[in-house]
Amino acid sequence: MLRVDDATLAALAFTGLDAMTAWNPAARPIPCTLDQVAQAAIESGAIALIDFAGPAPLVIEYELLREIAAGRRLVRLDDGGFAWLSAARPTADEGTASAKL
Questions:
Q1: Structure pTM?
Q2: How do 9-12 and 73-76 pair as beta strands?
Q3: I need a labelling partner for 54 at 20 to 30 A (CA). Which of 69, 89, 97, 99 fits?
Q4: At 75, is the secondary structure helix, strand, or coil?
């Protein structure tokens, strides 16, 4: 975890072994999926997931992180818009809009 300020935490992630060892040669990888990393970050209280070592630095902020942790995927629609896609049935609090996807 990376402390951004006195109260804010962000989780670190690396897209490859080369980026991780460049950051810290003593670091050891834990292979996992983006869903797993997102879930761990949320459970740890992080508000973002940061891959600052590249090859292209990336920040996934809390709202997106939460959707990824829930197993959802952002997809482009035929009209050029975007929507969240999930294999799971929507819960009552998610409304009917996601059920139409």
A1: 0.68
A2: unpaired
A3: 69
A4: strand
